[in-house]
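Minutes, project huddle
Topic: does the predicted pose make sense with NAP bound?
PN asked that the exact inputs be recorded in the minutes so nobody has to dig through chat later. Recorded below.
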Amino acid sequence: MRVLVIGATGAQGGAVARRLAGQGHEVRGFSRTPAAVPPGVSPFPGDLGDAARVKEAFAGVTHAAVLLPMVYDAATVSAYVRHVIDGARAAGVRRLVFNTGNRLPGTVTGVAAFETRRHAAAALLGSGVPTVVLRPPIYADNLLAPWVRGAGVVRYPLPAGLAVPWLPHAGLAAATAAALTRDGLDGATLDVGGPDTVTGPELAALFGPDVRYEEMDVAEFEAGLARVAGARMAAEVAATYRWIRDDFSRAGGPARDGGGFFGTAGDVQERLGVRIGGVRDWVRGLA
Ligand SMILES: NC(=O)c1ccc[n+]([C@@H]2O[C@H](COP(=O)([O-])OP(=O)(O)OC[C@H]3O[C@@H](n4cnc5c(N)ncnc54)[C@H](OP(=O)(O)O)[C@@H]3O)[C@@H](O)[C@H]2O)c1
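Predicted holo structure (tokens), as shared on screen:
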């Protein structure tokens, strides 16, 4: 495959690009500042807002892995998606895998981070470009943020009772590489997740028997994120955590085994034909 990875210098796209290059594919990494593409990936500098540049990036590629950056303005995201569709159509891309960056609620919300990705997924699936949509849950790698783990505590802005199939970036990469090539998946939307679905206290226990879980206040999370990412972006990301918290409380408590916002179909690994690692092994790997 000759694969274009959009966002190849980021945490998610970087993991995808690294995996594909490691499998021996020819990988072109698209981002505005391309110096940090993983080894074996050819940097291709460009901005998703530049239609002509996006088209050049697609020239000659057979497959594409697409992740939209932390931009939640509907018109800007629509333009990015239009440019991707035009580029992929012109190149005759055989399979495009779109990572929504999050699970998406079953009904329309007022949360831009969900709705812009819902529109993007629909546009790509309706574009005529053979597309697979992957909807990840929360990434295990988020647990590396300095504010998450303290002495004897794991803090995260999710309800303690909410069970989450935390997905390591490496698992996303494995799922993406499989979704690019597996037969019979064109038009599919797959909720991917790790095999270990754990509540907050179960997550904390993976770090040690005496480690407890603390639900972080979303406003505190937002204030911390605003200091590094700016108030607007922090508000958009915090809105997703507020929605998840309120949805959990509306549902009246825990749901497991295929239910709830983070429910994962039991056969997703079989459909992709790949083993996806979970948070249990990911935490062990930190030691
Ligand atoms: N589910 C979760 O746990 C979770 C966690 C984090 C993020 N997310 C979601 O994942 C998505 C991306 O998040 P992220 O930014 O943290 O991802 P990321 O994978 O770390 O990085 C984004 C990538 O896009 C590139 N990029 C940014 N703006 C661009 C532009 N205008 N044109 C071309 N390339 C551009 C960046 O490089 P340059 O800056 O060099 O261009 C970088 O390579 C968002 O939708 C976010 O909400 C989900």
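Observations noted during the meeting:
- Residues 7-13, 31-33, 47-49, 67-70, 101-102, 113, 136, 138-139, 142 surround NAP (CB under 6 Å).
- The chain has a mean pLDDT of 95.
No decisions taken; revisit at the next huddle.
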